[in-house]
Amino acid sequence: MTWDEIWPLLRQGTVETLQMTLWSTVITAVFGVLLGLALVVTDRRGLAPVPAVHHLLGLVVNVGRSIPFIILLVALLPLTRALVGTTIGTTAAIVPLAISAIPFYARLVETSLREVDPGVVDAARAMGASRVQIAGKVLLREARPGLLAGLTVTFVALIGYSAMAGAIGGGGLGDIAIRYGYQRFENTVMIAVVAVIVVLVQVVQLLGDRLVRRLSHR
Amino acid sequence: MIQIEKLRKTYRSRGRELTAVDGVDISVREGEIFGVLGRSGAGKSTLLRCVNLLERPDSGRVQVDGRDLLGLSGGELRAARQGIGMIHQHFGLLSSRTVAGNVAFPLEVMGVPRAERAARVDELLELVGLTEHAKAHPAQISGGQKQRVGIARALAGRPKVLLSDEATSALDPETTASILALLRDLRDRLGLTVLLITHEMDVVKRICDSAAIMRDGRVVESGTLRDLLLRPGSELARDLFPLPASEVRPGTTVVDVTFEGDAADRPFVSSLARTYAIDVNILGGAVEEVGGTRIGRLRIGLPGDPDLNAAQLAHLRDAGLTVEVHPTPGTEVAA
Question: pTM for this one?
Fold first, then answer.
């Protein structure tokens, strides 16, 4: 293949990969924060202790994280069809990507929230802050650098997973690497795809780190 | 202003029970600085946290400004807490907010409108002398400045009561002195009632009007500082005026004499020696400035057994001194 043929492929692949990963990161951010917050809040020593709910959520998260992504991709096909009406294409790939990333990110969120100085939570309680105020103005706010660092890690992981989603017709760079690079022995395409992914990961990590540093005042 | 009655709090963990506060009664009068002194594990922190119900006591009563806090609903309790300031050993500041943002936090919690908030924050920062650090983050200021932020924040809701949880324990001696001076100054200016806990005698000596000593969850002595220091056998006095252990030999009398104010200026030792023509031995002594008056304790030795010294002891008591005679050990031991 000539570069004239490769360039448009790469451009389309990058756009599709970014579509998949960006959307699934946004969805993961919302639900991961909610799930992580619920894990911390319902803990025995949390703001609203409900140990039964805490253990149930913990189990759900662990099960979600145990299933290999490639299996999840296939297992979720009916759900994907119900949600987006199709099981192939970039949009369809967002469903399994987000669902696999949510429990992963929820654990990172949980860790960040637990690192918030309990003395600050105490001080807020002594001020008469409500539980909603403590969750929003203390826990989530104080943990912001950690939440963002975790989201960067998740985004990078999603770039990797999106390559697998390509295998079931999700499109993107992974799809190109498999169809051209692997199945047709086009080494140039393979190397070009990997190079683009490396650059993507670098850029995401760099931006994430920079933002974390801006938010962090420790 | 603060009434604590028969307060008990027991923690249970892994089948073991630990009674942190075991039937404590404390009454803090309006406008006074009351110190609870005790070692770590004495239960003083739990006691303080029971006052604004950060910990719920198992039994007993807590009244602040005439209100029984244990009877309040969740919302009422939060409102009541807004009228009780609290400062903490490790400050408890939000690292993500600036100094001004931290002081504004309780105002946000209370629902004070934004414009009013800014004016109040300026006022509070001025009060604690931090105006120029308003835009700094907690990580950029010193420990003493952090505690000043903590104090400004605690005063945001114009509380009548301030609770202090080892507020100076993480600070060096000079910073401690300046924070204590600020607390006393604020008490004088704002008419605050302060309940503080500490393990440092120095804190009690410097700013407290009254004190209680806690050990193993109980108050072992309490009262105004002056009464405690003059009371024979008081632990507070023993801690504040550490005197060397002295052996009482038969045929001598060892007496601890506590004096305050005017009595401290009168030469009672030489007057005693002259009046009775005896040799007075000075075995140890200390003088401290407590709450604006000088209080001191002197250990002296007199010749002869205590019963032979009745007139001499009466002489000291007549001079307005508190006299405590050490018991003489049994003679058969000495022989």
Answer: 0.85
